[in-house]
């Protein structure tokens, strides 16, 4: 039962997948606008998710050198269009900072 999912609860931290990276790429422009930075290095490394009326994700992104950013993202259910929206971003994170929770937006 180590990977038991509680509906509405957050999963444990997991290694990022190809799908996680695709979600990060979908919100990259929004991230760059909010942080006023251009990211040459932008690689999802860890994530947590929560199944609600869609999927909320907290994602740790490696941004080069020793820089990390944390993203809070919402992905609609496929039947609702599957759109991805950036809810929040935190800069100045390190490799060792835990992901989330984010303040409510």
Automatic annotation (TrEMBL):
Enumerate the SUPFAM superfamilies for this protein. Cystatin/monellin
Q: Which domain of life is it from?
A: Eukaryota
Q: Which residues form a coiled coil?
A: none
User: What protein name is recorded for this chain?
Assistant: Cystatin-B
Kindly give the SMART domains that the UniProt entry links to this protein: CY
Where the protein is mainly located, per its record? cytoplasm
Query: Has UniProt tagged this entry with the keyword Cytoplasm?
Result: yes
- Mind listing the GO molecular function terms for this protein? cysteine-type endopeptidase inhibitor activity
Q: Mind telling me which Pfam families this protein's record contains?
A: Cystatin
Q: Upper lineage ranks?
A: Eukaryota, Metazoa, Chordata, Craniata, Vertebrata
User: How is this protein annotated for GO cellular component?
Assistant: cytosol
Family affiliation = Belongs to the cystatin family.
Species assigned in the record: Pogonophryne albipinna
Q: Which CDD domains match?
A: CY (cd00042)
């Amino acid at each position: 039962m180590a990977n038991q999912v509680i509906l509405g609860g957050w999963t444990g931290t997991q290694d990022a997948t190809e799908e996680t990276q695709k979600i990060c790429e979908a919100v990259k422009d929004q991230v760059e606008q909010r942080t006023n930075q251009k990211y040459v290095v932008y690689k999802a490394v860890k994530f947590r998710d929560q199944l609600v009326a869609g999927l909320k994700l907290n994602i740790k992104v490696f941004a080069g050198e020793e820089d990390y950013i944390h993203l809070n993202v919402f992905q609609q259910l496929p039947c609702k269009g599957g759109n991805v929206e950036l809810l929040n971003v935190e800069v100045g994170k390190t490799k060792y900072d835990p992901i989330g929770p984010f303040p409510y937006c």
